What we know:
This protein has helices spanning 4-10, 14-29, 36-48, 53-65, 81-84, 87-95, 102-109, 118-140, 143-148, 165-170, 176-185, 190-225, 227-236, 250-256, 292-303, 307-320, 324-330, 334-348, 359-364, 367-378, 385-390, 397-427, and strands at 285-286, 351-352. By secondary structure, the chain is mostly helical.
Amino acid sequence: GRLEAVTQQMGYHPQYLDSFLKMQHYLMHMDGPLPFDCRHYIAIMAAARHQCRYLVNLHVLQFLRAGGDPQWLRGLDFIPPKLRNLNEINKILAHRPWLITKEHIEKLLKISEWSWSLAELVHAVVLLAHCHALTSFVFGCGCEQDEGLGGRGLLKPLSPGNQCFCEATMGNGCSQELLRINRKRSLDSCMELDSLQEHIQRIHMETEGREETRLQQQDREEGEGKGAEVGVQGRSGSDPSVGLSPIPDPAKEVTSATNLACYMQDPDFGYQDFARRDEDQTQVFRVQDYSWEDHGFSLVNRLYSDIGHLLDEKFRMVDGLQSSAMAKRQGCEPSVFKRGIWNYIHCMFGIRYDDYDYAEVNQLLEQMLKVYIKTVTCYPEKTNPEMFDRFWKQFKHSEKVHVNLLILEARMQAELLYALQAITQYMI
């Protein structure tokens, strides 16, 4: 349940990895409107919408480490109403963000015992969008399959022995500064999580030890006082623990996340093609009317200090990644190819750019690539190893990771645009 697999894949693009880790560390671990345990629980709710056990397991451990109430892990019925009320916009943002309205915002902010503040809500919205988008990357790069299939998924180990994964992928070593930042800022400090798991396992072993000692003592007492009965018991069953309640395994309980359904309501609510919406539903979202650069950035930065700068750096970083090899195969400039992917993703969420000719999408993107992008973006839980292997066989692994980074950032920005526009309309 560690985020190590994700950072390994992002390690193909170390500059992006640096900006990703900075933003995530700030979002989850630095001062902000929301308590730390609530941040991880919101992440659990977000990841559960796409049945992403990899992220749910990670945040369950982090939730407990932050002092969260273990009862909350029994599901939404066991959490405070204020947190449970977030479920509706979690569901909408994850699958049909164009449906979110100022009424949803007003409902959460209305004056009551369980009302949210604007700053808290902005923090929660960024968390939800971040985790929804990250599930796309987790499924898209095979981290979920690798986790679920006991290492038989798509993810290939990138770091032989104790070699730094940056070193393994870059071939010329990685800077000590980047390595220091990664170790410091990564959400899933391996030592901390391993320590927690070891602690849980130690409790389990101590419990087993005490139970075994008790059984041995019981056997001795029975052997001394009821010698004849021992033979009868031995014939009826050689296992001394028969009839006893099984000893719970805390480590398994914490990390298995066997029932993700308890973390969500209305599980059948999923993505529907925006183009097939009813005519009286939400109109097309025009970036010329509300954009990240001109509107979203300033609003989010005002209500949740500095997160806007970190998000903006991440958006700019993915836009600046080199994709010359991919573009060359299509006979176009790298910027043209990347914009085609970005605008295609936004188009699936009803976001349109007036200055873009959408006929370019069909010219730039092969059908199998489009199917892959749509699946990973809209219903990542349906991504399978065959789909990953088939999409653009001529892509290098690092190029496939690059496509998944574009999906991650384009999806996150799309969700933020809808949520922040609804907040703006409420404020007006």
